[in-house]
Design brief:
Layout (H helix, E strand, L loop, with lengths): L2 H8 L14 H12 L10 E6 L2 H10 L15 E8 L2 H11 L3 H19 L3 E5 L4 H8 L5 E10 L15 H4 L14
Antiparallel strand pairs: 1-2, 2-4, 3-4
C-alpha cells in the first residue's frame, strides 16, 4: 500500500481533542499551504480560511453558532477551528452554476478543505468537518464581510490521549461506483 493510501485510511473525524496542547502557527500554515495548492474551477481559488485559536472566540463560536439538535460537546476542547469561507466570483460561481446546476464553489471548497485535513493527519493532528452551524452567526462573530460566505467549520487539534478512531463503515466498491454505464455496476475496472 502506498504512503498516500495509508494516510487516507488513517484520516478520521476526530471528536476528542487535547485542549492543553495548542497547535503551532507553523503547523496550521503547513496545512493551509496544502489548501493553497488545491485545484479549482477556472483556477478561481474561491476559498478563504479563517483560523480561530483564541479561547474566548472559540467559546463564542461553540455557544452561539451551533444549530440545535447536535451538541458537538467535543468541539469545546478543539484548540483550533478553521472557518472555511468562499468568495463568489460572478461568472464561475454565480452564472455557471445557474446554467449547469453545479455549485462549483462548494466543490472547490471541499477539495481545499480535504487537502487541509489530509495535511493535518500527516502531521499527527485530528480534524472534523462541521456543516451543522449557523452561518450568519459565524459571520457576525468573526466580523466577516458580505463577500465571504462561511460554508464549513473544521475542528483541528491533537487527539485526546486514549482516543481511537471508530471503525470506518464505508460502501463497497460496487455500491459506490459504476463502469461506463449504470447497468455495468460492479464490473472491474481493468
Amino acid at each position: 500500500m502506498s504512503a498516500f493510501q495509508d494516510l487516507v485510511e488513517q484520516r478520521s473525524s476526530c471528536r476528542r481533542y487535547n485542549p492543553d496542547k495548542p497547535v503551532s502557527p507553523e503547523l496550521i500554515n503547513q496545512c493551509l499551504e496544502a489548501a493553497r495548492l488545491a485545484p479549482s474551477a477556472c483556477n478561481k481559488q474561491p476559498w478563504v480560511f479563517g483560523v480561530v485559536d483564541q479561547r474566548p472566540l472559540l467559546d463564542k463560536l461553540w455557544e452561539k453558532a451551533r444549530l440545535p439538535g447536535i451538541k458537538h460537546l467535543w468541539l469545546k476542547d478543539a484548540p483550533v477551528i478553521l472557518v472555511l469561507c468562499v468568495r463568489l466570483d460572478t461568472l464561475t460561481h454565480r452564472l455557471a452554476p445557474a446554467l449547469s446546476g453545479i455549485p462549483y464553489y462548494l466543490i472547490d471548497a471541499g477539495i481545499a478543505g480535504e487537502h487541509v485535513t489530509l495535511a493535518a493527519a500527516e502531521a499527527g493532528l485530528g480534524t472534523c468537518w462541521i456543516g451543522w452551524f449557523k452561518t450568519r452567526m459565524a459571520r457576525k462573530i468573526l466580523g466577516l464581510p458580505r463577500s465571504l460566505k462561511p460554508v464549513s467549520l473544521i475542528a483541528m487539534g491533537y487527539p485526546a490521549e486514549g482516543w481511537t478512531p471508530p471503525v470506518k463503515n464505508r460502501l463497497s466498491m460496487q455500491e459506490m461506483s459504476f463502469h461506463n454505464r449504470w447497468g455495468d455496476r460492479g464490473s472491474t475496472h481493468a
